[in-house]
Amino acid sequence: MADKRATLTLESDIRYLKGIGEKRSLALKDVGIEKLIDLLYYAPIKYIDRSTVITVADLKRNWWKFSGAQEAVTFIGRVVDKRTLVASSGREIFELTIDDGTGKISCSWFNKIEYFKRQFEFGDFVAVFGKPTIFKGKINLIHPEFDFLTESDSINIHTGRIVPVYPSTSKLKSLGLNTLKLRELISSVINDYIDYVEENLPHKLILKYNLVPLKFALKSIHFPDSRWDLEVSLKRLKFEELFFLQLLLARKHYELKHFEKGISFTKIGELVRRFSQILPFQLTNAQRRVIREIWRDMKSDRPMNRLLQGDVGSGKTVVALIAMLIAADNGYQSAFMAPTEILAEQHYATFLNLLNSLPVKIRLLTGSIKPKEKKEILSEIQSGEAQIVIGTHALIQEGVNFKNLGLVVIDEQHRFGVMQRATLIEKGYNPDVLIMTATPIPRTLALTVYGDLDVSVIDEMPKGRRKIKTEIIPDDEKDRLYEFIRAKIKEGHQAYIVYPLIEESEKLDLESAIKNYIYLKNEVFPEFKVGLIHGKMPGTERQEIMSDFRDRKIQILVATTVIEVGIDVPNATIMVIENAERFGLSQLHQLRGRIGRGERQSYCFLVVKSSLLKSETLFDFEESKAVERVKIIASTLDGFKIAEKDLELRGPGEFFGTRQSGFMKFKFANIATDQKILEIARKEAFEIIKEDPDLMKPEHFCLREELVKRYSDSVDLAKVS
Ligand code: ADP
Ligand code: MG
């Protein structure tokens, strides 16, 4: 066949494919399809099992065979009626009637009625899939799966088999690329090009893990001959996806360890020695252990890339401070990056306090600092006079030039990807990097996002801590809560009352927080000093309020979510979280982590709309999730458990926030459930890089090629080429 096809390859731009063209190719690019091969990797969102298509007449004749059977079946026919019925209970039911030429069958939906009503028009040619039952005296499919067919549908793509359903955007649909069309497109590409697909995994791995060949997997992921084929194909593609990511991480890890020259800090000096004498508490064993691990990295002439994990309150800050003092002792500067200004300010205050009168120059650089002062600080940074500089992200990005930056500490910032290191190196620094995270990352995620980092864990809390008591309070029982707080404050405790502030409704949220503050201050607690803190305040005012709270001049601090991370006032033992259902799990955990820092019993109250707690009204999925979150927090203090649940409830994309999402977007793998595959993939990838770091062995050529294909835009890969 000497047709046009011969000039295209799987790597060709999709717009040259027959029937695509410029416009459609742009819409396809939005969903990640740029080349022909990407179509083959375009994962269906679900499948409809149409391997058993039967007619209504068949069904009636063989009712004994189908009724009560486990198997669902497919009917294909036209929409001849649609209507909304009202059941005797008052509940609405949407009923669709389909005629397949041999008889009629009804389909019924009990919820999202408006949605389903909109889906169907009279005369639509549809396939419906479900288990036939008798309902209201008629043959019925309850909540069937469905999709739309065209008259010309060739029977072997759309029916009589397991059929893929593709994600489609409204843009794609407006250009005629609905799931049906995509199905045809992909089917034709499979027909014409599948033979050109080359295996990208070494034979050894395929044999060892019983993987199916890539060719087979890429065909069967769309048009499987059986459920089994689908399952094994999916498994192979998940493995492949996770494996190549791990291979990238393994390679980066190798480069850091072998090529990049870092700083070798040679001594533990005067500052560290004196600091350990003035420290007001004994370090825990876990803290000692991780300090040793960090010191080992700092001593080595390879750059440190270490993740310091530890639950809220486990004492990461002092560990970081010691690392920064080591740097200072060796004549290097440190940058400490916090995610918010408020937190930077608070760390600055903590450090000043802990360092007492030690001769080390520590500076705060945030957006709220006045220009004149800022200029001064910038010049101290440039001259090397400022030894420890605390600030936000901007610290290493905009116009800040260090004389000799030796260590970067990134606090509470699980969104700081490994890639950002490149920014630093571009600026001519290759400092040691310590990333601290209080959100305990589930192991699977840690392996993925921080897969090229070394990990230290503080798995022990400082002595003398008491378990925080957590209680869910319906919002109509707040009076009781206020009385409790009043009694505790009279005993000398302090309290936080936190209101949600989320981006979408920021203005309204802030207004309501302020209104509540005024109400609490004037009506509920007139005898106490009540303060307000939020992110929109000028920095100086904020610092004043925080220091008043620390000095116990303020007893109750009303706050928006700005205090979520890092704030450390051990005398505060009460945390009230208003509208707790609006917070995410890790946020709730972080907020609760603000208390329980001293030796006295602490209390966390999760205030929830009382109507939400009456569970029989929980039809709304989002609302039931919200209540579930609150219940999880009330049931455990274990940050790791909470993080696992969080991942389960939200999925990895959201867990990490949108900024990180590119890295977390998997087509086939699901980080929450494919942990086992991930661990195998990781083990194999790291072994291969260890044995053949440049992937020069003939059996690894396929890996090198694929790695460059997949991650060509990642930094550092130039070295593998
Ligand atoms: P996080 O890990 O959440 O950042 P912090 O570093 O803020 O925790 O520490 C929480 C509190 O515990 C702080 O008040 C800190 O001074 C205190 N702390 C840290 N280490 C110890 C220790 N070994 N013994 C007693 N208190 C400690
Ligand atoms: Mg901290």
From TrEMBL:
It holds the Pfam family DEAD. This is ATP-dependent DNA helicase RecG. Its EC number is 5.6.2.4. Residues 477-648 form the Helicase C-terminal domain. CDD domains: DEXHc_RecG (cd17992), RecG_wedge_OBF (cd04488), SF2_C_RecG (cd18811). SUPFAM superfamilies: Nucleic acid-binding proteins, P-loop containing nucleoside triphosphate hydrolases. Residues 297-458 form the Helicase ATP-binding domain. The keyword Disulfide bond does not apply.
